[in-house]
Design a protein that fits this description.
The chain has 479 residues and is mainly alpha-helical. Helices cover 69% and strands 0% of the residues.
Length: 479
């Protein structure tokens, strides 16, 4: 396969990934119009076929890397356990509904992962997709804040009486935690571009996204936002040990930044101290709500739900109570203490309770692997250390993944939740060095080389130039 075709395949895969990420964030807002016109199934089939083409044209040596299997292993284990989960489920209709939604969510994330092809061009598609999703979520959120009108009618929801945005995610907790992944992708895209105008535009988009998250008044969303911004400040204020020395910045620029920081801090303090501003400050309302009786009762209710899920797990012999089984079991449980049926509000415990310790152990192992790479920068001592920007981006995705899982009523069947995990694996995969075959060796399953150069320590996020063919020919003659 020539380089021109390989480059076009990489671009096609990046486009597929970006469309999948944006489409998943729109959820029912995009699916319902397509379904009404009969286009939903053809769109999914076209995306799957294009992803299959990308997967089969990816070199086999790229599939032998660890990152893609950090997502595929727990996904495959969960899919393999589904027949047993359906068999033991107490409610066949609920089990079928959850299995259908869960399978669709996993396959959508697989499409996004396969579209990256383990190349930096595919990682660019991931970042562009999350940046596009952030722009749409900001537009929906600002419209809901200004108009006090929602995309989906929810007459019983408490946030409909206040200016709390929910966007296409139906719930403010879901929106805020999903937007953390959007911010992480947008910030990584900013680090990759060298255009000053594009950087300022992304900074403005990130600022607006942060405001929307604050207006959701979600404790987990605001907490994750603080951690993500701290990571971004650390990334921007520290340099690589291998980076070339930079020219000293002018004192005027430092003074301007310091003055802007002091001004922002003063505005934040004023919004809490001045009564007229405190009444419209979402953070002030969030702080007050965090200490009232309703919030404490809600937290205690979540703990009781977790305890009930562990009891159902034990009663199932630790193999899982079945797909979609928590709500029916909770409703039939006289000792649950809940009058109305509710979700578990924790995807990790949902996997553990309904699908057993085997599936949960594989998921925990995959997450532990990703966290280790974020902290250490590599798996083994001989492996090249990942670029700091990639590690910060991965940390942002994992932060969103965990916050979404522990906050949403049930994120297990959300396409966005699985796509966030696939994104963390995809950018790690794209950052690994390309192992080129020996001269004259036959390569099956894809082109002999990848046209992009990966992110390794000291190379920077924006590095994407391939080794010229003349260099390859010279090395071949030397051998």
């Amino acid at each position: 396969m020539n380089r021109h075709l390989a480059r076009n395949l990489a671009r096609l895969g990046a486009l597929i990934t970006a469309v999948t990420v944006i489409g998943g964030s729109l959820g029912a807002y995009a699916a319902r119009p397509l379904a009404d016109r009969g286009w939903l199934a053809p769109v999914y089939i076209a995306l799957v076929l294009a992803a299959v083409v990308c997967a089969f044209t990816t070199p086999l040596r790229r599939w032998s890397a660890v990152p893609p299997w950090a997502f595929l292993a727990p996904a495959a284990c969960l899919l393999a356990w589904m027949p047993y989960a359906v068999q033991v489920a107490p409610n066949a209709a609920a089990a079928t509904r959850e299995i259908d939604q869960l399978t669709l969510a996993i396959f959508t994330a697989c499409v996004a992962l396969a579209g990256t092809r383990g190349a930096p061009t595919g990682a660019l598609g991931v970042r562009a997709g999350w940046a596009g999703a952030l722009a749409l979520s900001c537009a929906f959120g600002l419209w809901e804040i200004a108009e006090k009108t929602y995309l989906f009618r929810q007459p019983l929801a408490p946030w409909t009486e206040r200016r709390i945005p929910v966007g296409t995610f139906v719930n403010p907790n879901n929106l805020s935690t999903a937007m953390i992944a959007m911010l992480a992708g947008a910030l990584a895209l900013r680090a990759q571009t060298t255009n000053a105008i594009a950087r300022y535009a992304i900074d403005a988009l990130v600022a607006v996204g942060s405001i929307v998250i604050i207006f959701t008044q979600s404790r987990s969303g605001v907490g994750a936002l603080i951690i993500l911004m701290a990571l971004e400040v650390w990334r921007r204020t520290t340099r690589h040990p291998d980076a070339s020395p930079q020219a000293p910045r002018s004192p005027r620029r430092r003074y301007l930044r310091a003055g802007a920081g002091v001004g922002v801090a003063g505005l934040v303090m004023a919004s809490f101290v001045i009564p007229s501003l405190a009444r419209i400050n979402p953070l002030s309302e969030l702080w007050s709500a965090s200490w009232n009786g309703h919030t404490a009762s809600s937290d205690r209710g979540r703990l009781r739900l977790l305890q009930a899920s562990l009891r159902y797990l034990q009663e199932s012999g630790y193999l899982g109570s079945g797909a979609g089984s928590f709500e029916p079991l909770l409703k039939a449980d006289p000792h649950s203490g809940f009058k109305a049926t509710t979700n578990l509000h924790n995807a990790f415990f949902e996997i553990l309770s309904q699908y057993g310790v085997v599936v949960a152990a594989v998921m925990v192992a995959a997450l532990g692997l990703l966290i280790r790479v974020c902290l250490a920068g590599r798996l083994g001592r001989r492996a090249p250390r990942l670029d700091r920007d990639v590690r910060v981006e991965m940390a942002g995705y994992l932060l969103s993944f965990v916050a979404f899982a522990c906050t949403a009523s049930s994120s297990l069947t959300y396409q966005t939740w699985w796509t966030i995990l696939a994104s963390a694996c995809a950018v790690w995969w794209a950052a690994l060095p390309v192992r080129r075959p020996a001269p004259g060796a036959q390569e099956t399953g894809g082109p002999p080389s990848v046209v992009d150069r990966p992110h390794v320590a000291g190379s920077g996020v924006g590095a994407s130039a391939a080794r010229p063919p003349v260099v390859d020919q010279a090395l071949h003659r030397l051998q």
